[in-house]
Amino acid sequence: QVQLVESGGGLVQAGGSLGLSCVASGIAFSINTVGWYRQAPGKQRELVAIIRSGGSIEYADSVKGRFTFSRDNTKNTVYLQMNGLKPEDTAVYYCHARRVRTGVEYWGQGTQVTVSS
Question: Please, what's the b/e burial string for 49-84 (b: 16 or more CB within 10 A of its CB; e: otherwise)?
């Protein structure tokens, strides 16, 4: 019914770039809250960036100026462009959606991002 599918992860050297995509079915990104989260080994899952239905975007301090979150409502897809990657960015990155009407949350399967020093 609801499915979020991430893609674009991989292995890059420090200073490199990666672009992540998340395609949704069964839920409209345009009218709900969508976020990127990440979880590194041994650490809690943390917020990377959030976009609300009105279009406002918030970033974690650790990624401001390096990551860009965007939304294409026509394609029902969100993107996370990651530049100037650092080893501490290494994590599994997850796409997340929260249905505003009900508060129900959905997660993608995650995509691995590894940044070598």
Answer: bbbeeeeeeebeeebeeebebebeeeebbbbbebee
Question: Which residue ranges of the chain lie beneath pLDDT 50?
Answer: none
Distances (CA, A) of 63 to 3, 6, 7, 77, 89: 26, 19, 19, 21, 9
Structure tokens at 5: 């599918």
CB 67 within 8 A of CB 56: no
- The answer to whether the beta carbons of residues 96 and 40 sit under 8 Å apart is no
Looking at residue 111, its pLDDT comes to 98
Amino acid present at 114: T
Q: What pairs with residue 47 in β-bridges?
A: 37
Q: Are 49 and 38 in contact (CB under 8 A)?
A: no
Which three-class secondary structure state does DSSP give residue 97?
Answer: strand
| pLDDT tens-digit readout, 14-48 | 999 999 999 999 999 999 999 999 999 999 999 99
